[in-house]
């Protein structure tokens, strides 16, 4: 269904290099150039431009990409839907690590009760990686905590979560603490760049003209459980969603750091490619995961 020239365009968008795109598609570089030139003639606009040696999408190219990516995603979904007519339904989606580990168990359980024959595959990664997989058609939808381009994805708010600073009960602070800035002398345990959990903290700090680097000591770790273990051991402080540390809070292994100027919360968001013809299907899956009927769910075309 998808025009081969559109596939070429999407491959160039992914690689931003005509030669690498040709290698991935197993065609010649002149053929790639010809496909792009044909699309530009058909739509009457330049899709790419060079700035020095770097290739960029034009504004027209960005608009074309939004529609082409949705078409590509829908084509893959349609092929899978047709293939499943004579077999069990499959569902492949993504979740950021905090959501996957601490929120999705109930949601997956609801899906399995709704359709005991469904085959589910959930991938966990940071928001940046999930958006990439979604654009490539590897995922049908994703539930993310990080920020995304609201012009490229439709979304539904899955839930809102408190985002809190925590430490060990016997943690010794460098100075009395009542404001966010008072924590800058502490060792901050934080996720890697690109993590949605980290992005929330970065936004809160930016609002105060601060950054992660404003902390005196920083330890970056790609594993949430290691961050919690080290924080419980008193090696530093961290900021995490309350749902991710509720067990430790209940057991007295961690305590919330009270701050007068920092009441943070953040939405977990269910997203899919904007303009998808399968939007109603994704909304139905959303309702099933939430355990709600068709009424009372808020749709946001962001």
TrEMBL record:
- UniProt keyword annotation of Transferase present: no
- Presence of keyword DNA-binding: yes
What is the native source organism of this protein?
Candidatus Lachnoclostridium stercoravium
Family indicated by similarity: Belongs to the LysR transcriptional regulatory family.
List residues of the HTH lysR-type domain.
1-58
The name of this protein is LysR family transcriptional regulator
One GO MF annotation is:
DNA-binding transcription factor activity
Keyword annotations of the record = DNA-binding, Transcription, Transcription regulation
């Amino acid at each position: 269904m998808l025009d081969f020239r559109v596939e070429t365009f999407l491959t160039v968008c992914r690689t931003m290099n005509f030669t690498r795109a040709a290698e991935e598609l197993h065609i010649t570089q002149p053929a790639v150039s010809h496909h792009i030139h044909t699309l530009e003639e058909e739509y009457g606009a330049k899709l790419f431009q060079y700035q020095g040696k770097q290739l960029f999408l034009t504004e027209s190219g960005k608009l074309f990409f939004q529609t082409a990516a949705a078409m590509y995603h829908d084509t893959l979904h349609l092929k899978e839907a047709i293939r499943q007519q004579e077999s069990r339904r499959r569902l492949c989606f993504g979740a950021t690590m905090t959501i996957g580990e601490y929120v999705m168990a109930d949601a997956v359980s609801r899906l399995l009760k709704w359709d005991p024959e469904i085959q589910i595959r959930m991938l966990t990664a940071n928001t940046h990686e999930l958006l990439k997989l979604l654009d490539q058609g590897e995922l049908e939808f994703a539930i993310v905590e990080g920020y995304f381009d609201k012009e490229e994805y439709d979304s539904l708010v899955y839930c809102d979560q408190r985002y809190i600073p925590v430490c060990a009960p016997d943690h010794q602070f460098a100075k009395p603490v009542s404001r966010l800035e008072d924590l800058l002398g502490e060792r901050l345990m934080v996720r890697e760049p690109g993590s949605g959990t980290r992005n929330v903290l970065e936004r809160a700090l930016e609002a105060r003209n601060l950054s992660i680097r404003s902390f005196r000591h920083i330890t970056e770790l790609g594993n949430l459980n290691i961050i919690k273990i080290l924080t419980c051991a008193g090696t530093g402080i961290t900021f995490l969603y309350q749902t991710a540390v509720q067990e430790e809070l209940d057991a007295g292994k961690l305590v919330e750091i009270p701050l007068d100027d920092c009441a943070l919360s953040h939405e977990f968001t269910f997203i899919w490619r904007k303009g998808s013809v399968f939007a109603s299907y994704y909304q139905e899956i959303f309702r099933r995961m939430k355990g709600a009927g068709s009424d009372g769910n808020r749709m946001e075309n962001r």
